[in-house]
Amino acid sequence: SGDSEVLIENCRRIVECGEIKCSAEAGGFLIDVWGADLTMTSFANGNAGVTGKIQSVSVSRRSRIGGKGAE
Fold this sequence. Notes:
With about 70 residues, this protein is mainly beta. The chain is globular and about 30 Å long. It has strands at about 5-10, 10-15, 20-25, 30-45, 45-60.
């Protein structure tokens, strides 16, 4: 079904992977995958696969520490 796998392309780093949340950095963004029984299935050629019961995916821009506007 459509809620069992997520492929993250251009993945640069796995931030965390647990049973309810997997996070990765890709293209200047942080991608959080939320669900149940999550498993990282692959990390090759700049792609990361997450399988399980996917409930939501959120994407947020990574902020640069010490960048413009930082105090």
